[in-house]
Amino acid sequence: MAVVTTRQKASWSVANTIVALYALIPVLWILSLSLKEKSTFTDGHFIPRGWTFQNFVDIFQVGGFTRPLLNSIGIAVIATFVAIVIGTFAAYAIARLDFPGKKLMLGASLLIAMFPQVSLVTPMFQVERSIGLFNTWPGLILPYITFTLPLTIYTLSSFLREIPWELEKAAKMDGATPFQAFRQVIVPLAMPGVVTTAILAFIQCWNDFVFAISLTSTNSARTAPAAIAFFTGASQFEDPTGSIAAAAIVITIPIIIFVLIFQRRIVSGLTSGAVKG
Amino acid sequence: MTQATVQSKTRVAPGGAGVAKAKKPLSDGKRSERKLGWLLCLPAAVVMVVVTIYPIVYSVMLSLQRYDLRFPDKRGFVGFANYATVLTNEFWWRAFLITMIITVVSVAFELVLGMTLAMVMHRTVLGKGFVRTLALIPYGIVTVAAAYGWQYAWTPNTGYLAQLPLWSGSAPLTHQASSMAIIILAEIWKTTPFMALLLMAGLAVVPEELQKAAAMDGASAWQRFTKVTLPLMKPAILVALLFRVLDAVRVYDNIYVLTNGANGTSSLSITTYHNLISGLNLGIGSTMSVLMFITVAVIAFLFIKVFGTAAPGSENMGRR
User: Cα–Cα distance between A140 and A133 in angstroms, integer?
Assistant: First the structure.
């Protein structure tokens, strides 16, 4: 394996190129649509003939995309944060402590990871309307926390098992309580795992559509993916193609940035947790 | 992942012995450890119970009632009448069939493509990081955004794919067979990388020496793959399949954007959703929710029983 022959290089380049085309063509197509001038949407060319940024300007200035985008960011960040905090507690307990009910906890979270979200839509729609959570941020944050918790607990507890626990013992010998040992020794060591898990949880919240479209009715809480589905164009009679494509690109950018920066971590997180949620 | 299941038996020592010890009086340390364990799990448990268990119970209750938001006065207990209505309804079974077709076809393709992609990511000697980064893009992209891309790609005049002479100018998203094919294509594109990553984790546990030994014994590349790699990867494959099947059964976003259930492409999720939002029929909608939940539970159960996938809740499931 030490020496890579030219032939090997060539065949792997072909394989890599195929992967690149597979992953990029659909994304480049949306990018191309978003950059097309309004008159050229129906020319069917993969590469735009008339380039413009007008579609991006329009979705913010006329399309009211700012609010859904802020909703998306706010809701996903808060839900991720809360899920990480309470998920870390649970993952620590599962990875480190001996207590009855551990299996139940893991079983329950796995059940939720596999749960058909749409099954929750009907009861949640009714419950949220009666307690005033319908069409509010908390109304979406709550289900997002719940559905990212399994992923958080599984991924984090597998990361936490890898930590050198002798350090915790040493801290306890030096007189630290279990909680102090957790907070001052383990938390800093666990940070990489926590960051990885947070990214995965964020992607999951960012991606949600079922809850976003069922539990909101106006832009006051509607997230970006749901808002895109309601785009009708700058005016009622206008083709929304450009707006939808531009908005799709806007919500794709953060993910691409995450992937570029944290590729290694995302891969290790996904393969160690094995839970998508 | 094979290792994982084996390891879990041996490595759990601190937790596994708990049952046997339970009878003996607990030391102070043990008791405080238990307390801390419960305390740390409490917030997560509370959220999960409040947001899922309660709605599920509520859903079961609603499913036993006649409850249509358009006629709130007629609300009342009807026993299993809603179940009879749904289960004798042609639309429900058609949605069931559509969902199963999408699930089986897309997961089958994903398994083959995912395995190929996993091989490339695992073995490539050129730009490993580059390939993995690229493969993560479909995984990370918002399904709805990608779905609109596919929709426009297949719209006559607008799309580059609809231009291909193969379809001779027809509109693929207006016919059932072609709509289904496009929905399945969108699903496959988006989730193959996820499948590939799970399979790659499985590939990593196949010892290199075994491959070399097999090669020395004169096994061809294909023989090494089917006789050495695949059997060792079985647990990883089953876990990946289980996750993907359960995910595919709830297919929603792609269909919503591509056809919104038109031309006979309505899945279980889409049917349930339409019943709630357009129909505002909570009784029937809840019945469908419960039935969908049961469907998923049965699939998970069969997987675990028939294929012997590591049981949910077993300590190290799908982990290494």
Answer: 8
pLDDT digits (tens, 9 = 90+) for A80-113: 999 999 998 999 898 888 888 888 888 888 788 8
Q: What is the 3-state secondary structure (H, E, C) of chain B?
A: CHHHHHHHHHHCHHHHCHHHHCCCCCCHHHHHHHHHHHHHHHHHHHHHHHHHHHHHHHHHHHHCEECECCCHHHCEECCCHHHHHHHCCHHHHHHHHHHHHHHHHHHHHHHHHHHHHHHHHHHCCCCHHHHHHHHHHHHHCCHHHHHHHHHHHCCCCCCCCCCCHHHCCCCHHHCHHHHHHHHHHHHHHHHHHHHHHHHHHHHHCCCHHHHHHHHHCCCCHHHHHHHHHHHHHHHHHHHHHHHHHHHHHCCCHHHHHHCCCCCCCCCHHHHHHHHHHCCCEHHHHHHHHHHHHHHHHHHHHHHHHHHCCCCCCCCCCCCC
pLDDT digits (tens, 9 = 90+) for B279-316: 788 888 889 888 988 898 888 888 877 766 554 434 34
pLDDT digits (tens, 9 = 90+) for A221-249: 999 999 998 886 555 556 788 889 999 99
Number of domains within chain B: 1
Task: Give the residue-averaged pLDDT of A248-259.
Answer: 91
Q: What's the predicted TM-score (pTM) here?
A: 0.85
Domain that holds residue B222: 64-307
Nearest neighbour of B200 by CB, restricted to A179, A263, A271:
A271
Q: Out of B40, B43, B135, name the one closest to residue A19 (CB).
A: B135
Instruction: Give the residue from chain A lying closest to B311, CA to CA.
Output: A107
Taking an 8 Å cut-off on Cβ atoms, the answer to whether A99 and B38 are in contact is yes
On whether residue B9 sits in a domain, the answer given is no
CATH assignment of the domain containing B240: 1.10.3720.10
Q: Is the pLDDT of residue A26 over 90?
A: yes
